[in-house]
UniProtKB/TrEMBL annotation:
Residue ranges of every copy of the DUF2007 domain listed in the record: 1-66
UniProt cross-references to SUPFAM superfamilies, sorted A to Z: GlnB-like
Organism: Plastoroseomonas hellenica
Pfam hit, one: DUF2007
Protein name, UniProt field: DUF2007 domain-containing protein
InterPro entries: DUF2007, N-reg_PII-like_a/b
Length: 75
């Protein structure tokens, strides 16, 4: 798995996942349940990951849509 986006905004996370789903790229949200630890304050970003073989295509889809993904070194 390779992280292609990081965000604390659940709406943006859903949008990015939908963009990738439309391109036929499956995603996994990592750190989805961290809110139980942080108390729901939204301080920790959720990570959107794709299979390693889909990473380059996923990053291209995000760039084409004007989204850098917010992943360290990914875009």
């Amino acid at each position: 798995m390779r992280v292609v986006a990081r965000t604390t905004d659940p709406v943006r996370l859903g949008f990015l996942a939908a963009l990738l789903a439309d391109a036929g790229i499956g995603t996994v949200v990592l750190d989805q349940h961290i809110s139980a630890v942080e108390g729901g304050i939204g301080a920790f970003p959720r990570r959107l990951a794709v299979a390693e073989q889909d990473a380059d295509r996923a990053l291209a889809v995000l760039r084409e849509a004007g989204e850098d993904g917010g992943a360290d070194g990914a875009a």
